[in-house]
Amino acid sequence: MSGELSPIDKAKFVAAKRAADFVEDGMRVGLGTGSTAAWLVRCLGEMVREEGLKFRGVPTSTRTAELAREVGIEVVSLDEAKWLDITIDGADEFDANLNLIKGGGGALLQEKIVATASDQMVVIADAGKEVETLGAFPLPVEVIPFGWQTTQALIEETLVSMDVLGRSATLRMNGDAPFVTDEGNYILDLHLNRIGNARQLALVLNQMPGVVENGLFIDICDIVVVGYGDGRVELR
Ligand code: 5RP
């Protein structure tokens, strides 16, 4: 399955393959979104088809649901599963405390709901995602389309009052139109450079009218499986 891969894809693949070993028969498993999570879904599909692994998967996006079905994973909704044994997902950044920025793929809302409803969240990432301080990756914030420019202005004003370094919030686009999430919302990407107090920012953002959820995952992740281009894997 891994064939001839570029170092970055190899890093994602080996992290995903190692994390697939966490999945056991009978588990209810949250399936993340993104290119690294897609490797995981393919690995798990292979284990279902070739080793007879039996588990139920709860996808965090329509993309992941399609891929999971395609590779032979039994897909159920979160409400059917009720609670999950484990969620395995990618991330855009992680720090030494295993706090994350997620949402580069626009699926942060379902990802946060699913991860929070799990006994354990395992993140799979290539080594380039490890940072000292979160924030170089633009922080995705999911907002209601109604009045999104007012929400954008409110976020920018709040960032100024919090003395956060970078202050621009840009609407994520998909060609000429706004990018629309699975829930029909928009994404504002906050260009912050460095997030000094991620916990406080996450709380403040979620209190604003119009904001649905933000991409800071604080105290949610339990383990990060880090993959390297030479095939090494480390657990944090
Ligand atoms: C999607 C996500 C992804 O997990 C994150 O963007 C990482 O993606 P990739 O594995 O493609 O680098 O949060 O909303």
TrEMBL record:
Keyword Isomerase applies: yes
Keyword Isomerase: yes
Tree of life domain: Bacteria
Pfam family, one: Rib_5-P_isom_A
A biological-process GO annotation: pentose-phosphate shunt, non-oxidative branch
Residues annotated to bind substrate: 33-36, 89-92, 102-105, 129
Sorted UniProt keywords: Isomerase
Record field: catalytic activity: aldehydo-D-ribose 5-phosphate = D-ribulose 5-phosphate
GO molecular function: ribose-5-phosphate isomerase activity
EC number(s) reported in the record: 5.3.1.6
InterPro entries to which the protein is assigned, alphabetical: NagB/RpiA_transferase-like, Ribose5P_isomerase_typA_subgr, Ribose5P_isomerase_type_A
Matching SUPFAM superfamilies: D-ribose-5-phosphate isomerase (RpiA), lid domain (SSF75445), NagB/RpiA/CoA transferase-like (SSF100950)
Catalytic residues (positions): 111 (proton acceptor)
CC annotations in GO: cytosol
Listed pathway(s): Carbohydrate degradation; pentose phosphate pathway; D-ribose 5-phosphate from D-ribulose 5-phosphate (non-oxidative stage): step 1/1
Family per record: Belongs to the ribose 5-phosphate isomerase family.
Subunit details: Homodimer.
NCBIfam families referenced in this protein's UniProt entry, alphabetically: PRK00702.1, rpiA
Protein task: Catalyzes the reversible conversion of ribose-5-phosphate to ribulose 5-phosphate.
Name under which the protein is recorded: Ribose-5-phosphate isomerase A
